[in-house]
Specification:
CATH architecture of the largest domain: 3-Layer(aba) Sandwich
Structural class: alpha/beta
Oligomer: single chain
Low-confidence stretches: none
Strand content: 5-15%
Mean pLDDT: 90
């Protein structure tokens, strides 16, 4: 067991032992279908505090060949799957949080060098009997391990997009990072599964839109992973019954992320809730704003004060309960390249400040908690007339006029 190679199951065990644990192990059945196929590359983007890291910890515990985790999983949903035994504890897992490497270094070159060296350290320690052609080249080391052992790898990358969020203006750093990921992962036979999580979908940048081997699942198109993008309505209802909390109030506060999927020709609509908010509300026995406490309203303010192409009017209409039709196709999957109002609104979908209906192609403010964040933001801006307009619109709705 290493720091990054086959990290074990400790983090997932902590989740299992927590006061509130919602079984999302059905996700493993979805990833099992992709293992050692041409569809083995998945990029799953969700807002902060929507369970991305817990999912990565769960996948690590399940696939890690260095330990037997049957006792952890056999009574969960995945335990009844036909693929459960076939893939459990059968792979070398490399699990990394990119934010750790970014925070520990002062530039992209140092970050990638550290990542390369630390992973090679674990691999050489685990496979000291293997003869390596180039002990400093991560790709070659992994090729040599696979050639010698036939042990393929499950690569789990959490916070994959942190560089695009912190190095927003550094296109050279972004291209170096994408080049590294592409060279490490693309078309490599040693990869059984590559699973990346982040807030943003894969960056589009000319020819570098090429982590094109990844199938993307995001807040604008969650595909058949929709039910794993937060807590479902039935899961929240069960928690409310367990904690004797009002489900109707929970729905008003935290419901609103409507994700649509088509599985085997069947259309399904999922009403998703922020796990952070629901867990806090249940444990504190009080409904309130919890998800947005993990980041100040200043983050939202930066984008809405751009006021591109009538953005202010759109915000007013949505705060009054309306929805806005948008085109998400021009969004460059970053936090700086905005050609139109729709690009800003699409980013707000990925950040969790809006919900997107991919059939009607409209966005709306999802719930009371997020609505309050908009009010907090505009109350510090020169948008006094916006606040008045919102209050007037709400009065009209409440009185039926």
């Amino acid at each position: 067991m290493g720091s990054y190679l086959n990290p074990g199951s400790d983090l997932f065990e902590m989740a299992l032992q927590s006061q509130i644990f919602v079984d999302k192990s059905g996700l493993i059945e979805k990833t099992n279908r992709c293992v050692r196929t041409l569809q083995r590359y998945l990029c799953v983007s969700r807002p902060r505090r929507f369970g991305k890291s817990m999912a990565a910890d769960m996948l690590a515990a399940y696939y890690d060949r260095s330990t037997d985790t049957d006792a952890l999983f056999r009574n969960l949903k995945i335990g009844g799957s036909e693929t459960y035994k076939k893939h459990r504890n059968q792979y070398d897992v490399i699990k990394i949080n990119m934010q750790e490497f970014l925070s520990a270094t002062s530039g992209i070159d140092e970050m990638l060098r550290m990542l390369n060296d630390y992973l090679i350290f674990d691999l050489k320690e685990q496979y000291s009997q293997v003869r390596f052609r180039d002990e400093k080249n991560l790709v070659q080391v992994m090729k040599d391990v696979y050639a010698s052992t036939r042990h393929s790898f499950v690569i789990l990358i959490d916070e994959w997009d942190c560089l695009f969020r912190e190095y927003q203006q550094d296109q050279n750093a972004q291209k170096k990072y994408l080049d590294f990921l592409r060279f490490w992962l693309k078309d490599k036979e040693y990869i059984a599964l590559a699973y990346m999580t982040g807030i943003l979908p894969v960056k589009k940048y000319g020819s570098h839109s090429a982590l094109n081997m990844f199938t993307e699942y995001s807040m604008t198109d969650a595909g058949d992973l929709a039910e794993y993008f937060g807590f479902t309505e039935s899961e929240v209802q069960e928690l409310c019954e367990q904690y004797t909390m009002s489900f109707e109030e929970a729905r008003a506060w935290y419901n609103g992320y409507h994700l649509i999927s088509h599985e085997n020709g069947n259309r399904k609509v999922y009403s998703m809730y922020s796990p952070k908010s629901v867990v806090e509300a249940m444990q504190r026995r009080k409904f309130g704003t919890y998800w947005n406490q993990t980041e100040t309203y200043e983050a939202l303010k930066v984008y809405i004060q751009m006021n591109m192409d009538g953005l202010k009017d759109a915000i007013v209409e949505m705060l009054a309960g309306g929805s806005i039709r948008i085109n998400t196709g021009t969004f460059s999957n970053d936090m700086t390249t905005f050609a139109t109002r729709d690009d800003v609104l699409t980013l707000l979908v990925h950040l969790g400040y809006l919900t997107y209906d991919n059939e009607k192609e409209t966005v709306a403010i999802p719930n009371r908690e997020v609505s309050q964040e908009y009010i907090n933001a505009i109350s510090t801006m020169d948008w006094t007339e916006v606040v008045r307009s919102v209050e007037a619109s709400r009065t009209l709705v409440e009185t039926g006029m």
